[in-house]
């Protein structure tokens, strides 16, 4: 009888860090191109293989393993060396367990986190989404090993702290309103490079790009939240700051410029949202 394996027996490990997730579609992708050519026939007679694209997204709730200081996935997605180099490691996606074959695994070498998004809504569990990118891929293999089956506490909204300093360009003061939503994305803008005469169709190298930091903060309030509202706000050139804490181990400070406030009102609470863009030299995460 054929065996259909359950996805919940899978797990992931990147550069020695294990973490749980909800969804994963990281895979090696490749197109076969058959262009329209004048060939004296009504069928395509010529074709070529396209470059191999190793990429995909891993997402799920933020747990304590994910946020371990220094070794967790947040640090590996955002920290850089003095020369701007991101963490490069091997990404193993273990798909299912077999009593005869061990864990069936796809291994992606020379992998990096292209972007990471953290978000949290009041009353919910904090969530992450990572865009992974790699330069090497191996076929499915059987590997020994077992996921750490000790309990892991997920990070709920009460463990996510947020502090905002508007800065001179921040517009009106905030007051006593309460934050309801927070989201931030670190995009590393990794560029895939191919070279003439290389021995295969995998990427020749992954070039780390300039980090783009974007996000938004929402709060219950009247539309007097910090943010750019007047021409005088545009003339002011000082940045504001966002400090957020995730559980006991992650503490991040960002220098940002605030966009215009976008208030909305319905039958329920009035909620205003203001986006931000990271600018100037950022503090070490």
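-> sequence recovered:
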């Amino acid at each position: 009888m054929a065996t259909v394996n359950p996805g919940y027996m899978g797990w992931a490990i990147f550069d020695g860090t294990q973490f749980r997730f909800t969804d994963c579609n990281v895979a090696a992708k490749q197109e076969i191109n058959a262009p329209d050519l004048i060939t004296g026939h009504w069928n395509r007679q010529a074709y070529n293989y396209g470059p191999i694209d190793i990429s995909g997204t891993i997402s799920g709730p933020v747990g304590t393993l994910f946020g371990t200081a220094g070794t967790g996935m947040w640090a590996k997605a955002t920290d850089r060396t003095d020369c701007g180099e991101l963490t490069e490691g091997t990404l193993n996606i273990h798909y299912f367990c077999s009593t005869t074959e061990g864990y069936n695994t796809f291994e992606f070498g020379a992998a990096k986190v292209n972007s990471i998004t953290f978000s949290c809504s009041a009353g919910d569990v904090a969530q992450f989404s990572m865009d992974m990118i790699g330069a090497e891929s191996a076929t499915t293999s059987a590997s020994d090993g077992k996921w750490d089956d000790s309990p892991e506490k997920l990070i709920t909204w009460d463990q996510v702290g947020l502090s905002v300093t508007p800065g001179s360009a921040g517009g009106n003061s905030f007051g006593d309103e309460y934050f309801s939503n927070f989201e931030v994305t670190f995009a590393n803008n990794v560029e895939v490079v191919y070279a003439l005469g290389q021995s295969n169709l995998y990427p020749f190298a992954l070039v780390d790009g300039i980090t783009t930091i974007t996000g938004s903060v929402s709060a219950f309030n009247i539309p007097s939240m910090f943010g750019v509202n007047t021409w005088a706000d545009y003339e002011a050139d000082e940045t504001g700051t966002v400090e957020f804490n995730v559980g006991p181990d992650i503490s991040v400070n960002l220098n940002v410029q605030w966009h215009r406030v976008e208030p909305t009102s319905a039958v329920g609470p009035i909620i205003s949202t203001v986006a931000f863009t990271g600018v100037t030299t950022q503090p070490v995460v």
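The two ends are 52 Å apart (CA to CA).
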